[in-house]
Design a protein that fits this description.
- The complex is a heterotrimer.
- By secondary structure, chain A is mainly alpha-helical.
- Chain A is built from twelve helices and two strands, in the order H-H-H-E-E-H-H-H-H-H-H-H-H-H.
- Chain A has one domain.
- Chain A is 67% helix and 3% strand.
- Chain A has a two-stranded antiparallel sheet with strand order 1-2.
- In chain A, helix 1 crosses helix 10.
- Chain A starts with a helix and ends with a helix.
- In chain B, a hairpin with a 6-residue loop joins strand 2 and strand 3.
- Chain C is an alpha+beta fold.
- In chain C, helix 2 crosses helix 3, helix 9 runs parallel beside helix 17 and helix 9 crosses helix 18.
- Chain C starts with a strand and ends with a helix.
- The chains are: A mainly alpha, B alpha+beta, C alpha+beta.
- Chains in contact: A-B, B-C.
- The interface between A and B is medium-sized, with 14 and 15 residues.
């Protein structure tokens, strides 16, 4: 493949992924409202379109029409910049997530990932921790005590859970011996899913992912009852929508990342034994990826509508006193597995 | 030894509870069960709630089958009304019951739907109907005069039957 | 004094009193329908049956003369059973439609049915039907079915109104009341029968079906219809007077008042032609202005006249307070002694029951507080003459339709340079006035009237104005008044922008450089108490029935 072709294919993949991501995020909002309704024995949005399916568009439209309020005491530039950072980080991260094996179209061998970076995992970790800047800056620039508290909480939370997250990933890397997401997926062939091999690592990672995405029970930066919305108290209209969308985009990325690292990515165990045509296998595998992703997303929503928020000190003690040691234990466990079974 | 005497308190967690995971799973099971339970929400404007006969909707005045109101403007509803929602001005008529309401107004913003007026009415003339659709855009609209209050008896017969049985 | 024992209470009585009177004087209530303290004893209702020891049968308390050592039981088993029987008997033919009846709420039969009846009727037959809408007279309606034939109304006409017009006809359960052939019950006191009727058989054509008694507030006041000053209660709902009823005052009017006073002395308070804001004449036209503008105009124009060019007309319709402040204003603020008031007498009005020829409520009071010319000043005739001769150029009239006194005054008034009028309603005088101040009526302010006998009595505000708030100024309040908000039509009513005359005058005096520090009518009265006749009196002393004062020779002067 020439460089030109790589650029063209990449652009096409970017367009598809960004488009799909937008759609996913939009419908995730709808889905969240539906799940919350079901969990509370309600029906949920059902007015806009059939069963309310056009609700996300109505939501966006409403936010578009709202007055954009910038507080007098805010730092205007950073105030405007913060939601952009949030969105940028959320969407860029998806570049390195593989959502299927290589496909052959028109004689080209195309990997189903925008950028097959050999340090993909590091890339994701780096970018997601950049996301905290969006929240911290938003909190700081708003010139409001609620926002500031939200921002501070966010950075503290991020630092605390990034550590256990990093150590959990360490367990995965020990097994895959690569930082390439595709290699990680491939290392989990059959039932060798990391979630099964290293359940402790899986749990610590999932918990950390919740904390990193500011989802309940870790949504202390927003914490409506105490902080009136936290870092986005002073945001309205499309700037608020930026944060809103990035939260759901982050959630999607976190889910995709969990699927990639622990749930075997696009793989369907032992599908090659069935002797299906390769085209169908690829379609099924992409489908499997999407299915796993959706299941993970549902889990995110489900948790949100089941568990109450942590107290701040509980959050910290969980992060440092439980998650951190557990992720260390996980590394030792994986190392033992490698030593004993030579995986 | 002294340590043993400390009793376990309600708020102390057991080991399993401290693990969090089983408790979280319990919570998740509960919410999931609710998700798949049948819903009983009315989709209101399309699907309307038809209240039972004991329901106390907006008070109405009974218009008898001969087209005359039953009310004799005795003012007992107005007197008993704890919210002072009812204003009655009596007048004289040629009918057998020589008193009739020249003006009968219920301020629906004041009405608290207690049903005392229905209970006190000696003529079975004021009835708490099943009508619950009350919305106004200004205070004046909320004052219902005789034009809005008078309802033909056929429309509230079931409610009257209920009252005869239980009152 | 001899003693009897009623329900174990040893009480004293005056010889000749009946049991019911003796009990009543000592605060023991024996139920009664037909008995009335001011009427002869009829003894036909039987509800006042009591048990007297050593008398085998129950006796009626209203006609049994009390005697030394009598032991009466009003709560014994036998008495209670008898009362219950009487109630059941009365209710046999009485329609049970209190919701329709206008008397509900002030009905003796209704009250006693609660107190003394078991509340069950064994009577299943058809009730007797009688005539229901009977026109007894121009002011009174009669409902034959509701009548319990107590004969109070008949006895009232015979004994108090001294014009026998009513009688029973028929027998047994068909007995009913009617007027004598070719007659109507049109005596000038006919409406008192409505008050004394223990049931809703007699109703006022004027008030019938207008309002429930419990929706109104009742304010103790005095009738301004003549110089008798009958004590009244003013019944108000939605800030509108709906009826007047007499109030008991043994010194003045007993339980009664005349139909004229009852019907004609409150309409002008509710009337459409009330003056609702100060008015000034500008280029020949009266225009409405604010109080401050009217005050400023009045002050600047009064200043432009010499002392003796100004004359003041007080009023026998105004209170003592109003007249006192006017006199003070005339003498010490303006410095004029040309002050007098119009004496009105209608020789066809008076009778020897209550009505007096002097048809103003307060001529004695006006005289007493100094609304009469001193030696150097002009009296009413002098003022008239002065206007003609253009010696009087400015006239200040309070609460008096001056033109009505004498048609020739109309021409005279046009000669004036300035005519200031305090009036509550439009009149001929206000139509020619230069400055009009809206004055509060007797039902809108505190004050005192002195009747022809020299009894000084309180009037109290019953209708609120912009100046006087019902709650803040301590008016009588009905339930509706208490709980109404500005958003309830019934709580709003019509509020006139009127002030008491003395208040208007003190404001003017202040602007003319003479501070009068009165905030309440009571304070004016306290200052007035320096006058010999009112010496040491306060509003508290007047109480509900007023106080008889020494009027000296003034009384003869006025009543002459």
């Amino acid at each position: 493949m020439s460089i030109g072709e790589v650029i063209i294919f990449s652009l096409i993949k970017i367009l598809i992924i960004v488009g799909l991501l937008f759609l996913t995020v939009a419908y995730l909002v709808y889905f969240e409202r539906k799940v919350s309704a079901w969990a509370q024995n309600r029906i949920g949005p059902n007015r806009v379109g059939w069963k309310g399916v056009l609700q996300p568009f109505a939501d966006v439209f409403k936010l578009l029409l709202k007055e954009d309020i910038v507080p007098e005491k805010s730092d205007r530039i950073i105030h405007a910049l913060a939601p952009m950072i949030a969105l940028f980080v959320a969407f860029t991260t998806f570049a390195v997530i593989p959502f299927g094996p290589d496909v052959k179209i028109f004689g080209y061998n195309i990997p189903l990932v925008v950028a097959d970076v050999n340090i993909g995992v590091l890339f994701i970790l780096a970018l997601t921790s950049l996301g905290v800047y969006a929240i911290t800056l938003a909190g700081w620039s708003s010139g409001s005590k609620y926002s500031l508290l939200g921002g501070i909480r966010s950075s503290a939370q991020m630092i605390s859970y990034e550590i256990s997250m990093g150590f959990s990933v360490g367990g995965v890397l020990l097994l895959s011996e690569s930082l390439r997401p595709i290699a990680i997926v491939q290392s989990q062939s059959g039932w060798m899913w990391n979630a099964i091999i290293q359940p402790i690592g899986f749990i610590t990672f999932v918990v950390s992912a919740f904390a990193e995405t500011n989802r309940l029970p870790f949504d202390l930066p927003e914490a409506e009852p105490e902080l009136v919305g936290g870092f986005h108290t002073e945001y309205s209209s499309m700037k608020f929508a930026g944060f809103f969308l990035s939260e759901y985009a982050n959630m999607t990325i976190a889910s995709a990342f969990i699927v990639t690292l622990y749930l075997g990515g696009w793989q369907i165990p032992y599908i090659d034994l069935l002797g299906l045509p390769s085209g169908l296998v690829i379609v099924l595998q992409v489908g499997a990826f999407i299915f796993k992703l959706v299941a993970m997303l549902f889990f995110f929503l489900w948790i949100r509508w089941s568990l109450p928020r942590f107290r701040y000190d509980q959050l910290m003690s969980l992060g440092w006193k439980v998650m951190f040691p557990l992720s260390l234990i996980n590394i030792i466990w994986v190392a033992l597995l490698i030593m004993v079974f030579g995986l | 030894m002294a340590l043993k005497s400390i009793k376990r308190r309600e708020k102390d967690l057991t080991f399993l509870e401290k693990l969090y995971i089983p408790e979280i799973l319990k919570g998740l099971t509960l919410t999931f069960k609710n998700m798949i339970r049948p819903k009983f929400t009315f989709e209101y404007p399309e699907e309307k709630f038809i209240p039972p006969s004991s329901y106390r909707g907006r008070p109405v005045l009974v218009e008898d089958s001969n087209g005359e109101e039953r009310c004799v403007a005795c003012g007992l509803c107005s007197r008993v009304c704890p919210a002072l929602a009812i204003e009655v001005q009596a007048g004289e008529t040629e009918r057998e019951k020589e008193r009739y309401p020249e003006k009968f107004e219920i301020n629906m913003l004041r009405c608290i739907f207690c049903g005392f007026c229905e209970e006190v009415c000696p003529e079975e003339a004021i009835i708490m109907s099943k009508d619950y659709e009350l919305a106004f855009s200004n205070r004046e609209d909320a004052i219902y005069g005789k034009d809005k209050l008078l309802v033909p008896i056929s429309q509230i017969q079931d409610k009257i039957d209920f009252l005869r049985q239980y009152k | 004094m001899p003693k009897i024992k009623i329900d174990n209470n040893e009480i004293e009585f005056k010889p000749g009193q009946t049991i019911i009177q003796a009990a009543r004087d000592n605060g023991i209530d024996i139920p009664h329908f037909c008995w009335h303290p001011e009427l002869s004893i009829s003894g036909n209702c039987r509800i006042c049956l009591v048990e007297v020891e050593k008398i085998p049968k129950l006796v009626i308390a209203c006609s049994t003369i009390a005697s030394e050592g009598m032991v009466v039981h009003t709560q014994s088993e036998k008495t209670i059973a008898a009362r219950n029987a009487v109630m059941e008997f009365l209710l046999i033919n009485h329609p049970l439609d209190c919701p329709i009846c206008d008397e509900a709420g002030e009905c003796k039969l209704q009250d006693y049915a609660y107190k003394y009846s078991v509340g069950e009727s064994r009577f299943t037959e058809e009730k007797v039907h009688k005539q229901k809408h009977v026109d007894l007279g121009p002011r009174v309606m009669f409902d034959g079915e509701r009548c319990i034939s107590c004969s109070r109304c008949i006895r009232f006409c015979d004994e108090i109104a001294k014009s026998p017009q009513l009688t029973f006809v028929q027998r047994g359960d068909h007995v009913t009341i009617t007027t004598y052939p070719g007659q109507q019950m049109d005596n000038p006191y006919s409406m008192n029968t409505i008050d004394i009727c223990p049931v809703g058989a007699l109703t006022s054509k004027d008030f019938r079906f207008n309002a429930r008694v419990w929706d109104m507030s009742a304010t103790k006041s005095v009738c301004p219809g003549c110089s008798r000053g009958c004590n009244t209660e003013v019944w108000v709902r939605d800030n509108k007077i709906l009826r007047l009823t007499p109030r008991y005052n043994p010194q003045v009017n007993s339980y009664w008042m005349c139909d004229h006073g009852r019907l004609n002395t409150f309409r002008f308070v509710n009337a459409e032609d009330r003056i609702d804001s100060p008015q000034l004449r500008r280029e020949g036209q009266l225009i409405k202005v604010g109080w401050d503008e009217a005050f400023a105009e009045a002050v600047s124009r009064i200043k432009s006249f010499a002392k003796d060019e100004v004359a003041f007309i007080g009023s026998a319709y105004a209170t003592c307070e109003d007249n006192y402040i006017l006199a003070k204003f005339a003498r010490s603020v303006v410095g004029s002694s040309n002050i007098d008031f119009v004496r009105r007498a209608d020789n066809n009005f008076g009778d020897d029951i209550l009505k007096q020829n002097d048809i103003t409520p307060n001529s004695l009071g006006a005289e007493l507080v100094g609304v009469s010319p001193s030696k150097s000043g002009l009296g009413i005739e002098g003022i008239k003459k002065g206007i003609k001769e253009k010696r009087i150029k400015a006239l200040y009239v309070i609460k008096e339709d001056f033109i009505n006194v004498d048609p020739e005054i109309e021409n005279m008034l046009s000669k004036l340079d300035l005519l200031i009028v305090h009036a509550s309603n439009q009149s001929k005088t206000t139509s020619v006035a230069d400055i009009i101040f809206p004055a509060a009526t007797y039902a809108e302010k505190n004050g005192t009237f002195v009747n022809f006998e020299g009894t000084i009595q309180r009037i109290r505000p019953a209708v609120s104005t912009v100046d006087a708030d019902r709650a803040l100024d301590g008016f009588e309040m009905s339930r509706l008044d208490k709980f109404g908000t500005s958003f309830d039509r019934w709580a709003r009513g019509t509020k006139h922008d009127a002030k008491a005359t003395w208040k208007i005058l003190t404001s003017l005096a202040g602007l003319l450089g003479h501070k009068m520090k009165f905030k309440m009518a009571e304070e004016v009265f306290e200052e007035m108490a320096s006058i010999e006749a009112f010496k040491g009196l306060t509003y508290d002393d007047l109480g509900e029935h007023g106080v008889k004062i020494k009027t000296g020779n003034v009384e003869e002067k006025v009543n002459a």
